[in-house]
Amino acid sequence: xxxxxxxxxxxxxxxxxxxxxxxxxxxxxxxxxxxxxxxxxxxxxxxxxxxxxxxxxxxxxxxxxxxxxxxxxxxxxxxxxxxxxxxxxxxxxxxxxxxxxxxxxxxxxxxxxxxxxxxxxxxxxxxxxxxxxxxxxxxxxxxxxxxxxxxxxxxxxxxxxxxxxxxxxxxxxxxxxxxxxxxxxxxxxxxxxxxxxxxxxxxxxxxxxxxxxxxxxxxxxxxxxxxxxxxxxxxxxxxxxxxxxxxxxxxxxxxxxxxxxxxxxxxxxxxxxxxxxxxxxxxxxxxxxxxxxx
Amino acid sequence: xxxxxxxxxxxxxxxxxxxxxxxxxxxxxxxxxxxxxxxxxxxxxxxxxxxxxxxxxxxxxxxxxxxxxxxxxxxxxxxxxxxxxxxxxxxxxxxxxxxxxxxxxxxxxxxxxxxxxxxxxxxxxxxxxxxxxxxxxxxxxxxxxxxxxxxxxxxxxxxxxxxxxxxxxxxxxxxxxxxxxxxxxxxxxxxxxxxxxxxxxxxxxxxxxxxxxxxxxxxxxxxxxxxxxxxxxxxxxxxxxxxxxxxxxxxxxxxxxxxxxxxxxxxxxxxxxxxxxxxxxxxxxxxx
Lengths: 294, 288
Known about the structure:
The complex is a heterodimer. Chain A is mainly alpha-helical.
């Protein structure tokens, strides 16, 4: 897609230069704002107690003596928490809940996109809205009943309990993305398969699902982002057996915070999702997200 | 063969109803009880919790604070996100690099970034005050002054979620057809005129969607406040969610916090519905 410049007539060079300076000035200012906390965390992660209490410094060797204490603490070194177990827990819960949500959500979305349902006075649009509207629910409203529910099921402080709760959090996202996506796949495709004698289930798995991969990727991405980044339920529904990453890192945040361990573990925990930004940008620039957004 | 259609819908529907609807109904029942540390269990107290709530000025202050914070941050995010999307939309150096960079904050865990921000806002050891002093301004008591603490929380929210606006608006910009721009050029419309009569109307629907989604998410603000300020200093950054958290999970006034959450939920649903309807009416209109 090539676009013509917007200006209808050439402007005076001075105002053009000024405009360019403002444009790149703002872009660079915002880039600095975005990068600032990451750079700060990176440099802090190589400090020790002395490096931190000497005030805000940025350059290793020149301004402070670098130390690997923070990074060593990730694997059980002194002055931090071992985050290997929480990391694995977070991976299991995120992937487990995303997989269940996408499976159930995709099936429901296909049903809502292709067939007419009626329960009492609820029709398709109402059911779709019921799914999506669950995002409005503030976590705090459900925290106490979830706690009691998981206790009754014996799932408090367990991976399975968290996955169960996260499914409720993520399925609305999967349904939202996939209903739109299936609506954009022409119905003719289904009808052709039916005429060839496929029943709806076969049609879905053989014909529609292979065409729905881009939608599944977008839905999966959003599920992983929201699952990995949640804190509140992991915080209220687990104690010591099953800590997730955000909980174990926030636990470091006390009055005497080991900034070095905190920074190192923060960087390691956000790294996998930062890589997702590249995937999102690919979709964006190829126009693959426009359909999912509308 | 259409019997099979239920195979698609029911598993997901049943799962969601089981996981969310029952807890919600349970919360409604609990809100009529006096469940606390001394009397655990589902006794019946009628509307006592609700009349107590009406007189609870700390609750209403928290709701007011939340509205200011949510509406304020979302509007700033929208303006900044729109500006950034326009800047990297077409001819710009290293376009894809900046697009990736501008998306990064929304991928990071809010609560973990809040912990990092807390060290940045640290008055004597953090890096922010030296920069401000370098500009010749006095240092700022970021987390110990009521007003500045509120500003700090808002700054972090803006850092975290402007990328979301940027993402949706850039996706919208990239899906705009190019013919109206050609027509505007032929008509001799300048960039400002083109923006207001072509670009903005083309993005009105996405704008409303993006603003409403962000308002929904912002109305739940809790993590950032919990980590950065614990609602303080005093109660100056206490949001509705955080106040309910204190009553329910710190003081264990389960019944009262259930009543608080139900009222909070109803107010949010009503307010967001009204805002969404108003936005649709005033922003989404047929192009002139």
